[in-house]
Amino acid sequence: MGLFDKGIKKTKQSFFSKISKAIMGKSKVDEDVLDAIEEALVSSDMGVDTTLKIIDNLEDRVERDKYVSFDELIDLLRDEIAKLLNVDNDDDNYKDVSPFDFSKKPYVIMVVGVNGVGKTTTIGKLASNLKAQGKKVIIGAADTFRAAAVDQLQVWADRAGVDIVRQEMGSDPASVAFDTVSAAVARNADVVLIDTAGRLHNRVDLMAELTKIRNVMRKVIPEAPHEVLLVLDSTTGQNAFHQAKEFSKATDVSALAVTKLDGSAKGGVVIGIVDQFHIPIKFVGIGEGIDDLKVFNKREFIGSLFSKEDLEK
Hints:
- The protein is an alpha/beta fold.
- It has 13 helices and eight strands.
- The chain has helices at 3-7, 9-23, 31-43, 48-65, 70-85, 119-132, 147-160, 173-186, 203-217, 238-250, 269-277, 298-305, 308-312, and strands at 107-112, 137-141, 163-165, 191-195, 227-233, 255-259, 281-285, 293-295.
- The protein has an eight-stranded mixed beta sheet, with helices on both faces.
- Helix 6 packs parallel to helix 7 (147-160) and helix 8 packs parallel to helix 9 (203-217).
- It is elongated and about 70 Å long.
- The two termini are 17 Å apart.
- The relative contact order is 0.19.
- Residues 92-96 have low confidence and may be disordered.
């Protein structure tokens, strides 16, 4: 069983049940089949704009070739989605166990996202992943507005066996970030993970806070942060689009981590978000365990989503 076979089972079952019903008894690809594919893509929360882009390309190919077998149609669908996911022009899968450039040290990752998407859990799992690679990791608990967030992060830091820098609840988040990167330099750490508050009620406040955090870190490490990782919950569907839009306006989001992919029939949202915002996915969460945060592999994800064996069932 591949990495994503279990993780996107619900999305795959929902998607292929709709396509299978449309194909049953058909001898050619017609408008009904294309309409059913369109419905399947939209219902997986891929988004209307992304869905129409895929359908238009499929229609052009069917019209040009006059006849496309169903096997060819699935291959075309797979190819179209592969193109959408390739926003970083990386046709190869990540050859390393991590998609980061660790030639920069300490490598600073600022993690953003609304409360409840699994941000703190993602930081903990990522810390454990990096520690297993032999990296020295320090976590900065800069979400100082929720005591539960800091306490939860402490639990994950203990589980992962990494250091954490924290202050009292209500402390200035930028102060925590400054102390964390300073400690990372002093302790010769490889990676810094900075947690941030997940509030979207006022984008101006959010932008000001993230900008302040970035500016104070740059007093210690001029190019920090090297990565801004936005955590999104796949089960929230179209709401994840809104979150991606708001955080992209507030800061320079450079990568995505998508959580709870195993619990959603709407895994198509990850494809739509990548297409609309041109931000690559670097991690996906496919379970509750500490090892269930995986480096995103485009080809394996698509191969699992468009498995012909499922179509034939």
